[in-house]
Specification:
It is a single chain. β1, α1 and β2 form a beta-alpha-beta unit. By secondary structure, this protein is of the alpha/beta class. The longest helix is centred in the middle third of the chain and has 26 residues. The chain is globular. The chain is built from 13 helices and 17 strands. The structure holds 6-O-phosphono-beta-D-glucopyranose. The site of 6-O-phosphono-beta-D-glucopyranose has 4 residues, from loops.
Amino acid sequence: MDTSDITVSARFPQGRARPFVMVIFGASGDLAHRKIMPAVYELCCGKAWPAKTLVVGYGRAELDTGGFRDGLRQAVREHARSAFDEGVWRDLAGRIHYHRGEYGSREDFERLRARLESLTAEADLPPNYLFYLSTPPGQFEDVIAHLGASGLARKGAAGDEPWSRVVIEKPFGRDLDSARRLNGLLAEVFDEAQVYRIDHYLGKETVQNLLVMRFANSVFEPIWNQKYIDHVQITAAETSGVGGRGSYYDSAGALRDMLQNHMMNLLCLVAMEAPASLEADAVRDEKVKVLRSLRPIPPDCAAFGVIRAQYGPGEADGRTFRDYTGEPGVAAGSSTETFIALKLNIDNWRWAEVPFFVRTGKALAQRVTEIVIQFKPVPPVLFNRPPTGPMQPNQLVVRVQPDEGISMRFQVKQPGSPLKIEGVPMHFGYAGTFGRKVPEAYERLILDAATGDPTLFIRSDEIEAAWSFVMPILAGCDRVRGRALPRYAPLSWGPREADDLIAAGGARWHTPAAMDPRQAQR
Ligand code: BG6
């Protein structure tokens, strides 16, 4: 792809956002209630939300502004981090409006346009528009096309007032072709600089800290390569099953739902080179290079160590799990994976021969996302041989969530004699050090979109590179569609094959409980 049309400079420096209108499409949906509006409320609590900014919810539900505000009030009470403050809410709620409309109706978009014009005139606001697409993905194309046809999109108006920008939720396409089509449609209506493809993992504090940890410290970068690192593990595990999202999830699976986006982003931030600057494109250029250096996995992926499985029925931890294929909304006999583990190789100078073991799944033993850097062992002389060895190599664990923090395991001498050596953790925890809850990813991302900083959003070539990598694996999954997948016990660590995968590389999965220094494994 020619990247000359996707240059986004840092000409919109991060700073205080100017007042604008946030138009949420899919406003009566779950995401708006659980994530988007609680994040807006938090920004209001922290005084980061520009005064006078309006929120206009657009949706098909038969609601009026009063009913919409009531629903959001309840959602904010339930889902915001901070205690509910009536004064903050009242101030915000007074600037929230609801506009009922269909996504495919030209007239409804014309009416929306007229409504926005009158609201901005009344509030004496510049017509700065942040369009937030949180509809089901099947509606994206209609909304984008109508934003263009109604004149609301204002192609080219990325930075200077009055600006317009569009935030698009995942999933961005369901394969390379549909992602390209969506990119093409967006490019007709907006400039790339106006497009903010969201991956909420990039807004997590601990994920942003990956670059700080790597490039603001002198101790890590010199050893961050194949000379010193044996392998890397990336785990994103959830204890919940698919819940009420069965029909969406069954068409996605762990591969589309987590691997193609969240896991790829974590991988990129661990593996990328230092960017030339912190400008959005400098960072994103380096991420794209990682994606393009991934060794392709052929479609007979099972033979190349791609492990896919589903959770089976069972009772665990006082909970009853149905077999995945019996979940509401899931097709009987479905061969969609709820767990995937695979070994990735990045064929570049830094990472040659260093395997990246990646796993993600539902109904697993613990809710945890972490990145483990396993260093190579010291030579088998002096301590690393009997009677004091063999010793476990150094290990750096970045706990993305929960209990956000970083732990380094290193060897110390146990007091006394005879000489015994023990691996102990050196631990940093966000909560203990900073004494407050880390902000939600959506707070940071919404504010970045409002201030015009696309660094933590996905660029068009990036999304296409990620899809290009997963396409052969998807083709492999299609070939075995209809065949039963292996089952794993609910609240376990997944199928035995995933353990075999990493064991074949001479390693084993890190046990997340070891992150807590009080429970560190000895
Ligand atoms: C979403 C997926 O993108 O990320 C969900 O669609 C998943 O299936 C969620 O549960 C995980 O996000 P988090 O922030 O809870 O790790």
